[in-house]
Amino acid sequence: MDAFSDLRFFALLMKEGSLAAAAQQMGITPPAASRRLAQLERRLGVRLLRRTTRRMSLTPEGETYLLDGARILGDLDALERTVAGARSSPRGLIKLAATLGFGRMHIAPALSAFARAYPEVEVQLHLTDRPVNLVEQGFDAAVRFGDLPDSRLTARKLLANRRVLCASPTYLAQAGEPVQPADLLAHQCIVIRESDETYGT
To answer: Which residues of the chain form CATH 3.40.190.10?
Structure first.
């Protein structure tokens, strides 16, 4: 197996999340996929994955191999498209993650139009209010609020996420109106959570 083939195998393994699922995609048996991973780790001389009976997670070397490998494979694909004149239509699988509200309101409707424009691309949208790990969970992209959790990831701002402080007139009449942010410490506030990040007091 060549290095590019190994990179594609490892990327598929992490995207599918298990050796059995990756083996099914490749049309081979799970033991054959396990041997392929063992050969790759022997060739590199490092462990790429920590495996238990229930889950697998990346070692630091595995994370580097996956992230830098994705960039290399992307460059190779771009080169081949350029040489081939980009005649073929886009195809393949894209795994996206988004929060429940934003995903239902904005991402899902956009995917409907995308599917009509690119019928050979399969898009899997995972909606959750829990944080996702792009690398370990095999996502291609995620829509999230807040700061970028990993400086090695590439991000683009899509929209501003405005927060508005509201209170009923009855409450303000009883508790008084806050003048500065520190005043909120003395008020009964409803805390809004976005993934693991908290906004409010």
So the answer is: 92-142
